[in-house]
C-alpha cells in the first residue's frame, strides 16, 4: 500500500525564501501521517503567474508593470542544481518521503515550467520541463525538450508527472504510459472541471493512480506576497488591476486523488487550504491491466509506432 498526499495551499507569492519555509512546515505536517509521496501544484515555487489570466494589461508590449513582475518572478525562481535542490534533498531525507514539486525553474536567461522530483533517500532527483507553455504562458516560459521525459524510480514503483494542458497531448500521454507509472502527478494552477476530466482520463488510460494537485490563492495573497519581498515593485499595479475583491479566490484548489478505474478516492476539494491523503492499492493497477494496457496488449505496434527524441536540444555546442 502506498500512502500519498497533496498539498493544497497558497505559496508566499513570488517570495521564494518564505515559500520554502512554508513548504517545509507543510511537508513535515504531512509526513507525520507516514506518507510515501507528497505532491505540490503547478509552479507553486514561488507561485503560478496568474496575472496572465486575470490582469487586463498583462500582455501589453514593453509594459513596465509586466516587466517588473517578470523580474521578480525570475529573481525568485530556483536554478537546478543549486541551493534549492540541496534544501529539498535534505527535507525529503529527513522526512523519508518522495517530493514532487512544481517550480518556476531558472536556466540561463529563461524560465521553465518544471516539475522537480526529489527522492526520499536524499540522493536522487529528476527535472521535468513542460513541453509547450499554454497560450499566454508563452510570454514567460520557454519550451522543454524530450531529454526530461523521465520518471522517478522508487521502492513502490515509478512516479511520473505532467503539467496542465500537457494532458491533452495524445503522443505525450503514450510516451509516459510506456514508462509504466504507478503514481502520476497531474499539476494544475487549479483543477477545474475540464482538468478533472483530463486527470480521470489519464488515470484510466494509463492504469495508474493520479494525484491532481491545484493551488488556492486570493488576490490579497498575491499582493501581500509581492509586498513582502519587494514593496515598491511596479508590478503591484498589474495585480491591483485584477477585477474583484481582494478576498476573492483566483485559484480554487480542486485537488483530488483518482484510481486506475477513473473513480475518485478523494473527491475534489475546493475553496479551502488542505492536505489531502489517500491509500493507493497497487493491486488495482494489476487487475485493471487485464482489461486495458495501452502500452501492452491493447496497443497495435504493427500499425502505430511513436519515436521519441530524448536528445537535449542546445542552441550552441562546443566540440
Structural summary, described in words:
With 319 residues, the protein is an alpha/beta fold. It has a single domain, classed as Carbon-nitrogen hydrolase (Nitrilase/N-carbamoyl-D-aminoacid amidohydrolase, 4-Layer Sandwich), CATH 3.60.110.10. 28% of the residues lie in helices and 26% in strands. It is built from nine helices and 13 strands. Strands 6, 7, 8, 9, 10, 11 and 12 form a seven-stranded mixed β-sheet that branches. A six-stranded mixed β-sheet has the order 5-4-3-2-1-13. α1 packs parallel to α4. The longest helix has 16 residues. It is globular. It starts with a strand and ends in a 31-residue tail after the last helix. The mean pLDDT is 97.
Structure at a glance:
With 319 residues, the chain is an alpha/beta fold. The protein has one domain: Carbon-nitrogen hydrolase (Nitrilase/N-carbamoyl-D-aminoacid amidohydrolase, 4-Layer Sandwich). Helices cover 28% and strands 26% of the residues.
What's the β-strand tally?
A: 13
Instruction: Report the end-to-end length measured between terminal Cα atoms.
Output: 49 Å
| CATH class term | Alpha Beta
Mean pLDDT: 97
Any guess at the CATH architecture? 4-Layer Sandwich
- Please state the overall shape, judged from the principal axes of the Cα atoms: globular
Helix content: 25-40%
As a percent range, the share of strand residues is 25-35%
Q: What's the CATH H-level superfamily name?
A: Carbon-nitrogen hydrolase
The major beta sheet can be summarized as: 7 strands, mixed
User: What is the SS-derived class?
Assistant: alpha/beta
The topology string of helices and strands comes to EHEHHHEEEEEHEHEEHHEEEH
As for the CATH topology, it is Nitrilase/N-carbamoyl-D-aminoacid amidohydrolase
Low-confidence stretches: none
Our count of domains comes out at 1
Assembly status: single chain
The radius of gyration computed from the alpha-carbon positions, rounded to a whole number of angstroms, is 19 Å
Amino acid at each position: 500500500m502506498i500512502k500519498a498526499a497533496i498539498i493544497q495551499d497558497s505559496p508566499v507569492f513570488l517570495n521564494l525564501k518564505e515559500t520554502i519555509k512554508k513548504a517545509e512546515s507543510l511537508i513535515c505536517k504531512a509526513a507525520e501521517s507516514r506518507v510515501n509521496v507528497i505532491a505540490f501544484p503547478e509552479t507553486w515555487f514561488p507561485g503560478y503567474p496568474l496575472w496572465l489570466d486575470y490582469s487586463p494589461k498583462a500582455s501589453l508590449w514593453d509594459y513596465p508593470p509586466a516587466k517588473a513582475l517578470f523580474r521578480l518572478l525570475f529573481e525568485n525562481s530556483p536554478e537546478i542544481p543549486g541551493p534549492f535542490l540541496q534544501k529539498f534533498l535534505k527535507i525529503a531525507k529527513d522526512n523519508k518521503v518522495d517530493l514532487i514539486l512544481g517550480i518556476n525553474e531558472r536556466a540561463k536567461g529563461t524560465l521553465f515550467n518544471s516539475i522537480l522530483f526529489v527522492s526520499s533517500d536524499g540522493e536522487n532527483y529528476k527535472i521535468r520541463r513542460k513541453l509547450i507553455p499554454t497560450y499566454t504562458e508563452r510570454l514567460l516560459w520557454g519550451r522543454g525538450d524530450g531529454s526530461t521525459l523521465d520518471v522517478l524510480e522508487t521502492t513502490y514503483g515509478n512516479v511520473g508527472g505532467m503539467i496542465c494542458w500537457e494532458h491533452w497531448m495524445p503522443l505525450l500521454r503514450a510516451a509516459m504510459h510506456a514508462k509504466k507509472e504507478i503514481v502520476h502527478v497531474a499539476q494544475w494552477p487549479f483543477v477545474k472541471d475540464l482538468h478533472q476530466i483530463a486527470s480521470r482520463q489519464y488515470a484510466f488510460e494509463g492504469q495508474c493512480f493520479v494525484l491532481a494537485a491545484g493551488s488556492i490563492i486570493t488576490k490579497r495573497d498575491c499582493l501581500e506576497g509581492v509586498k513582502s519581498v519587494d514593496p515598491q515593485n511596479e508590478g503591484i499595479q498589474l495585480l491591483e488591476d485584477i477585477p474583484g475583491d481582494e478576498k476573492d479566490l483566483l485559484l480554487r484548489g480542486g485537488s483530488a486523488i483518482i484510481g486506475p478505474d477513473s473513480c475518485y478516492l478523494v473527491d475534489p476539494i475546493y475553496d479551502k487550504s488542505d492536505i489531502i491523503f489517500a491509500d493507493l492499492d497497487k493491486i488495482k493497477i494489476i487487475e485493471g491491466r487485464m482489461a486495458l494496457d495501452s502500452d501492452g496488449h491493447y496497443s497495435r505496434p504493427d500499425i502505430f509506432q511513436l519515436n521519441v527524441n530524448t536528445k537535449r536540444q542546445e542552441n550552441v555546442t562546443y566540440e
